[in-house]
Amino acid sequence: MANASPDLDNAEAQRQLNNNNRPVSSGFWETDCTSSKLFEDAVQKKTFTKWVNSHLARVSCRISDLYNDLRDGYMLTRLLEVLSGEQLVREHTLRLDKMSHGK
Known about the structure:
It comes from Menidia menidia. The protein is an all-alpha fold. It is built from five helices and no strands. It is elongated.
């Protein structure tokens, strides 16, 4: 069973590599160096996602895609709150209130 975990991790890294919005194979410019860099990027993305989730677990939150889930700033704010131990001001609530009043 311990041998299945690295295979799963490699499969997950390969899946994320394919989802990086970068060309996996573009023909003439694809080199071993480019493939290695893309694979390394996918592994780093997966590692950082796990690190973020280990901290977000303290507030019962989780992200599945690093780029998309941190894009709007909500989860990033939650992460900063966990890391700093302080409550941060959320201005988006004020923006929504202004929008509802036609300002």
